[in-house]
């Protein structure tokens, strides 16, 4: 049982016009096995929240705390956070030319576990995971995200998540740009991880469609750098019908 | 970090405005006479990026004592390695030297050596030649000659230290195929100025790979001339400059006859405050060279502050009847987004940097086509990256 606890998180970025505050006091707690949907308009700070938790150097934390099972996440380096059990499926996965997917996966798995995986079981695990996500085995020899289509990149993110087995996973618009078949495949991957490892999920999305496949326990409306309202799955339906106007007007 | 990117493309006869380039690359003098070349001051077009002070002993028109120690793998049937007289060596060199260091090397080389592969001989195993510097001044003159339809892979590896100048002459008869790998793995105080001159007969194929990792100063000037139609050349280069190293690679591909193909791909990484690299790629497509297809690329990866990479592609086109001609040059900082991505998967900073740099060079290394060399290069690049970690740790 793990808990990710975000308390009063304030985050700024440096812009040509000066320092800009993007997160303005975020409070959120995610436990193992729970799925929290985060929905909010463009530019409200959802990716900033995701990147700040993962430790992207662009974002400065000016106030607040993030802990995983009581450990101070903000004190950890980027790779230490991953080793502690955090995973970020990125909105725009980065291309790393010349580094093969299979080498990358093995290196990451070795780093997370602190020892190299047993070769035979690992090869099989990768094959099964790729097969589940309908990824051609040929992807193993391609450069990381190099020339991948949008949907392939997202499936590759979920592949990593399934193999690295984090405690808490942040999915930043993993559903955006996916057709319904790809959406189903990716959602199955998330549900498999929830079932087999008790994964806790922060599911950032614009669209309620993915919530038909991955059932949220909580829905948070994210507006102007903070959580404006939270509720159960019914809140998502309301957002679908009414949009964010009500919150934006109040913000 | 300083990055300069001079991109220059000239086209004259192909277009009506008839601009004549200041000076065509083809107009540079060539001569076996050392006096034909004044001692470089560093202001000349072809020496302007070079540390001429470090190279000055290589400009002196005088005999030297030292030599490099030669070691060669067992030579198969049809392959010979022989010492030539100076006159013979000069007569068999494909073109006269193009600069003073090269002319001095030819004049004062103690023992010109020729590696010859007889016509129709196909050598499967790579032929390895190890040249080891024992300190002091040394001059070299090496000829590699393949007879008609011969095929071979030749790996020349330089280690140890010396102040060394050299001319390598490569002569490929019609339809011959050579994979030539030149490895500069000198100790850190070596100084090396070399010229590689290649002439390709009809339908000949040259793959030339240059790998420069060691040495204080390495300056290699490669010129390829097509003497017959249908020939092709692939020139690959890989370099990794640390603090205190100057690595310079100049290239000249002379398309003088129709229907030849050239590809130039050079990639370098630089780390350390005073690391310096220079790449100059000249391609000339003469009026007669219809159906030419050429592309040259230079990419530099700057790993730390202070390092400086110069990249100067230059394409001269004298005919419009070509298949294709292009060049690209890019010098960039280490990509922080790539680092973040890898590290967010638990990979340490050091390991991530290793992966990114290996990835940068991976395709190039796979082009070498000699598995033993490819593997040892990957290990050496890892060592170079380990140096980077030390440099960063010192900051
Ligand atoms: N480096 C930066 N410089 C300037 N502004 C930035 C920077 N990074 C983020 N921002 C701004 O911060 C705000 C929040 O961005 P963020 O990407 O977190 O939003 P988001 O909710 O994920 O939006 P979307 O739904 O479009 O993905 C935006 O206004 C964005 O322009
Ligand atoms: Mg976003």
Descriptive account of the structure:
- The complex is a heterodimer of chains A (251) and B (395).
- Chain A is of the alpha/beta class and 251 residues long.
- In chain A, 37% of the residues lie in helices and 31% in strands.
- Chain A has helices at residues 46-54, 78-84, 101-113, 119-132, 150-164, 180-197, 233-242, 245-250, and strands at residues 3-15, 18-31, 35-39, 59-68, 71-72, 86-89, 96-100, 143-144, 168-172, 200-205, 218-223, 226-231.
- In chain A, strand 4 and strand 5 (71-72) form a beta hairpin.
- Chain A starts with a strand and ends with a helix.
- Chain B has one domain (7-334).
- In chain B, 18% of the residues lie in helices and 43% in strands.
- In chain B, helix 4 (336-343) crosses helix 5 (349-366) and helix 5 packs antiparallel against helix 6 (371-394).
- Chain B starts with a strand and ends with a helix.
- The complex binds adenosine-5'-triphosphate (ATP) and magnesium ion.
Give the key terms.
heterodimer, A: 251 residues, alpha/beta, Rossmann fold, 6-stranded mixed β-sheet, 4-stranded antiparallel β-sheet, 37% helix, 31% strand, B: 395 residues, 18-stranded mixed β-sheet, 18% helix, binds adenosine-5'-triphosphate, binds magnesium ion
Apparent shape of chain B: globular
Specify the oligomeric state. heterodimer
Low-confidence blocks of residues of chain B: 1-21
Number of helices of chain A: 8
What is the CATH superfamily of chain A?
P-loop containing nucleotide triphosphate hydrolases
Order of helices and strands of chain A: EEEHEEHEEHHEHEHEEEHH
Q: What would the average pLDDT of chain B be, to the nearest integer?
A: 92
Model regions low in confidence, pLDDT < 50 over at least 5 residues of chain A: none
């Amino acid at each position: 049982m793990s808990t990710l606890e975000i308390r009063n998180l304030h985050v700024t970025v440096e812009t040509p016009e000066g320092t800009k505050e993007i997160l303005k006091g975020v409070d959120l707690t995610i436990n193992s096995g729970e799925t929290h949907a985060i929905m909010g308009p463009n530019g409200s700070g959802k990716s900033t929240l995701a990147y700040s938790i993962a430790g992207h150097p662009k974002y400065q934390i000016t106030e607040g705390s993030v802990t995983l099972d009581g450990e101070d996440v903000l004190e950890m380096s980027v790779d230490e956070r991953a080793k502690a059990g955090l995973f970020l499926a990125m909105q725009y996965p980065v291309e790393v030319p010349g580094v093969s997917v299979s080498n990358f996966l093995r290196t990451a798995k070795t780093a997370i576990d602190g020892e190299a995986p047993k070769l035979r079981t690992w090869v099989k695990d990768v094959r099964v995971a790729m097969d589940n996500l309908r990824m051609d085995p040929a992807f193993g020899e391609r450069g990381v995200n190099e020339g991948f289509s949008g949907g392939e990149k997202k499936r590759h993110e979920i592949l990593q998540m399934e193999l690295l087995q984090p405690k808490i996973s942040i999915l930043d618009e993993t559903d955006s740009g996916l057709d319904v078949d790809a959406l189903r495949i990716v959602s199955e991957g998330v549900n498999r991880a929830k079932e087999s490892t008790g994964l806790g999920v922060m599911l950032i999305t614009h669209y309620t469609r993915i919530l038909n496949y991955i059932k949220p326990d909580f829905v948070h409306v994210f507006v102007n750098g903070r959580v404006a309202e939270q509720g159960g799955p019914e809140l998502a339906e309301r957002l679908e019908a009414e949009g964010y106007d009500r919150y934006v007007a109040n913000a | 970090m300083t990055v300069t990117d001079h991109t220059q493309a000239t086209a004259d006869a192909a277009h009506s405005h008839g601009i004549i380039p200041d000076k065509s690359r083809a107009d540079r003098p060539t001569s076996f006479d050392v006096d034909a070349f004044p001692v470089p001051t560093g202001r000349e077009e072809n020496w302007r990026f070079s540390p001429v002070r470090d190279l000055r002993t290589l400009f002196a028109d005088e005999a030297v004592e030292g030599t490099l120690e030669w070691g060669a793998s067992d030579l198969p049937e049809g392959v010979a390695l022989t010492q030539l007289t100076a006159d013979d060596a000069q007569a068999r060199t494909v073109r006269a030297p193009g600069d003073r260091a090269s002319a001095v090397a030819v004049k004062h080389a103690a023992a010109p050596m020729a590696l010859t592969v007889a016509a129709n001989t196909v050598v499967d195993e790579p032929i390895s030649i190890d040249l080891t510097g024992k300190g002091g001044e040394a001059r070299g003159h090496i000829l590699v000659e393949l007879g008609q339809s011969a095929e071979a892979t030749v790996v020349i590896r330089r280690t140890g230290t010396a102040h060394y100048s050299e001319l390598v002459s490569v002569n490929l008869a019609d339809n011959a195929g050579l994979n030539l790998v030149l490895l500069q793995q000198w100790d850190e105080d070596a100084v090396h100025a070399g010229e590689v001159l290649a002439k390709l007969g009809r339908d000949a194929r040259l793959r030339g790979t240059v790998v420069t990792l060691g040495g204080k100063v390495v300056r290699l000037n490669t010129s390829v001339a097509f003497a017959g139609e249908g020939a092709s050349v692939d020139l690959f280069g890989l370099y990794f400059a640390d603090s205190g190293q100057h690595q310079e690679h100049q290239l000249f591909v002379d398309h003088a006859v129709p229907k030849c193909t050239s590809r130039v791909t050079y990639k370098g990484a630089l780390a350390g405050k005073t690391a310096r690299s220079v790449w100059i790629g000249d391609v000339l497509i003469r009026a007669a060279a219809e159906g030419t297809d050429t592309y040259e690329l230079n990419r530099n990866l700057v790993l730390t502050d202070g390092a400086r990479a110069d990249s100067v592609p230059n394409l001269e086109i004298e005919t419009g009847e070509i298949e294709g001609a292009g060049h690209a040059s890019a010098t960039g900082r280490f990509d922080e987004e790539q680092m973040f991505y890898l590290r967010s998967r638990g990979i340490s900073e050091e390991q991530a940097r290793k992966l990114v740099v290996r990835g940068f060079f991976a395709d190039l290394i796979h082009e070498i086509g000699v598995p033993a060399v490819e593997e040892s290069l990957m290990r050496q690049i890892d060592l170079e990256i380990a140096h980077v970690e030390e440099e960063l740790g010192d900051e």
